[in-house]
Every structure is written in structure tokens, then in C-alpha cells.
Design a protein that fits this description.
The radius of gyration is 16 Å and the shape is globular. The chain is about 85% helix and about 0% strand. It has 6 helices and no strands.
């Protein structure tokens, strides 16, 4: 189905971009603060925020306009990742962006999986959902590897525009 081939690559690109920018942010926080705790929060704090988002936002995922919601969430992700590229952004600002993006990530996942029920036949849903979950995990590994490779040649703030470009490509995929 045509729409699945928009949903799937957008998830792939979004996941790679998020892990690349998370890795870069963790590196930046560690270089700036030297704190292992803040570094861990920078890299894995969005997961905690996602849990909080799941507790409070999941009813929105069942709304009647999942395509519009997904597009809006992609725009928010693009704005957030792009904002991380602002030179001299204070750490408090970086963590605020991180928390907001993590918080709405649960909604993003819920909308994608809800939309998936519309895009594939009932008997294909389990296979499609498994494919998306496996790909998401694989793209996290790829995103961390790409982030690490990029950090060998650019500063952490140089990874954010690349992550923003991947997020913009995901946004265009969702919009199309």
C-alpha cells in the first residue's frame, strides 16, 4: 500500500535522526559539564519523558485526524532538532527541548501504530507492526553509529543540522 511506504521510511528517518542528535547532545553535555548523570539524562531522558507522555497523551493518538497529527508532530520534531543546532543555546534550553520532544514521542508512536491499522489489512497488521518495531531498533543502532562517525569529523553542534535534514526528509515523506 502506498501510504505504508510513506509511514515506514518516515519512522526510519525520524529514528535515525533522533538517535544521532541524542548522541551528539550527550557528547556536548559531557564536554560542557563533565557530569555522567547529565550526560545520561541527555541521552536517555527522552525515554522517561516518553513514558510520562504515554500516561497523559495517548488518548490524543486515537483522534480522528491521525495524518494531520502525525504531520504536526513531524514539524515539532524538526523545530526541536533544528533548535538544538543554535550555537550557544544554554543547557537548560537544550534539556527543555529534549523533554518536550520525548514527551510527544509517545503520541508520535501511538499515532503511527493507530494509522497502521488503516493502512494494512487486518491479517498483515502484526507483520507490519513487527517490521516497524524491528526497524526502529535497528535504526537506533545505525543512528548511534552514524552519530559516532560524524563526531569524529564534526563538532557535536555539527551533527544537529544533519539530524534536522533527516527529520525534514521524514516530514516531506509524511506530507507526501
Amino acid at each position: 500500500r502506498r501510504e505504508f511506504f510513506g509511514l515506514y521510511p518516515s519512522l526510519t528517518l525520524t529514528t535515525a535522526a533522533a538517535t544521532m542528535s541524542g548522541y551528539a547532545l550527550g557528547t556536548l553535555v559531557h564536554a560542557s559539564t563533565g557530569s555522567p548523570l547529565l550526560t545520561a539524562v541527555a541521552m536517555f531522558g527522552p525515554t522517561f519523558a516518553t513514558v510520562l507522555g504515554a500516561l497523559t497523551l495517548m488518548s490524543v493518538a486515537d483522534g480522528d485526524r491521525p495524518r494531520r497529527t502525525l504531520l504536526s508532530l513531524q514539524v515539532l520534531s524538526l523545530v526541536g532538532v533544528s533548535a538544538q543546532a543554535i550555537p550557544g543555546l544554554p543547557m537548560a534550553g537544550r534539556f527543555a527541548i529534549l523533554f518536550v520532544l520525548g514527551f510527544v514521542q509517545s503520541l508520535n508512536t501511538g499515532v503511527r501504530m493507530g494509522l497502521l491499522t488503516e493502512l494494512v489489512a487486518r491479517e498483515q497488521y502484526a507483520l507490519a507492526r513487527s517490521l516497524m518495531n524491528i526497524t526502529s531498533g535497528g535504526m537506533q543502532i545505525v543512528g548511534y553509529a552514524l552519530g559516532a562517525a560524524l563526531l569524529r569529523v564534526v563538532a557535536p553542534t555539527g551533527v544537529f543540522p544533519i539530524s534536522a535534514a533527516l527529520t525534514a526528509l521524514a516530514l516531506l515523506t509524511v506530507a507526501a
